[in-house]
Amino acid sequence: xxxxxxxxxxxxxxxxxGKIDTFTAPELGKVIDNGLDGVTxxxxxxxxxxxxxxxxxxxxxxxxxxxxxxxxxxxxNANETVLDIFDETGFSSILDIE
Length: 98
Description:
- The structure is a single chain.
- It contains three helices and four strands.
- The chain is of the alpha/beta class.
- The protein starts with a strand and ends in a 9-residue tail after the last helix.
């Protein structure tokens, strides 16, 4: 998994490439834990993400909970496989997916 971050003012875009699983989710967790100060709009760009396990879903949920208090979260460009995972787990109703 590779994570790229781009900050423009109070908007942070996090691009994820590859798969999020038990081994890679902590890396995303560190970005979420340490990178959201002053962020009012968080965008996850998932165009290059292939898959997420439940460990990754926990990180998305954590980000959503943080952003509920300080702004908004948007998920962009998720492929069909990732959208199916979000649908099957109920995350489609939790996350703002574009």
